[in-house]
Amino acid sequence: MVASRHPAPAGKPAGRATSKVGVADPIWLRVRKEAEAVMAAEPALTSFIFASVLSHDRLEHAISHRVSHRLSHADVDGGLMLRTFQDLAETQPDIGASFHADLAAVLERDPACERYLDPLLFFKGFHALAAYRFGHELWRQGRKDFALYLQSEISRVFAVDIHPAARIGRGIMLDHATGIVIGETAVVGDNCSFLHAVTLGGSGKQTGDRHPKIGSNVLIGAGAKVLGNIHIGNSSLVAAGSVVLQDVPPHMTVAGVPARIVGRCTIAEPARAMEQGLSANMPDDYGGL
User: For residue 213, what are the β-bridge partners?
Assistant: First the structure.
């Protein structure tokens, strides 16, 4: 769930809106108001804001436009990429539901974010995650070459490398995002937050199911590496710079190289709180996994 101080993410979105203001979507209505305010304050951005936001009838279409524009390259016609993204958003309501939850997560958790408009237009972590969601659906449909092309372009443009086969829940924030790597068989639960340079990787040349499984409401700090087919329990905190090589029980804080339990995570939902300090209940011997 997202914080109540902002409109809750919409559920599965309805079909194509019949008006330019969308249908029963408070996040989209707020995005449009924010965009109108920017146009009034910064006339130089009028064409950019109109093309990116106000010319669209749904949040999903605005995100499709912005992400396809940022990934545009001579290799693939930009219009074709945009139509592909829009078709996926139209036929797969879960994509739109994830967009709403991810956008709300950034506004809730990032103290530098004051508007829904900011991640939609400017934040590469949100753009990389949105593009991954399109690629994941293409992978699921058997269109693996297009999905791998998107993975390559996401890495080139945003410095974020997420394999399209990875399974990632809703309400995710990739804060700053530079250097994030998520491997092919990784699984991430709902409402997680990752800071820059996080790796969910393998531990060698194993094949098959070889990447981490992250529970819900998990916070992974900057530069942390979680390696191998291990499980990180719900509502856990992985401290910045840690290297995690073994399972982590739910509601625990781990830190170090290799990571060890340093205490219970006293915050019910660390990914939402974004509090990265170590537990005050650290044992004298630092515990152990």
Answer: 187, 231
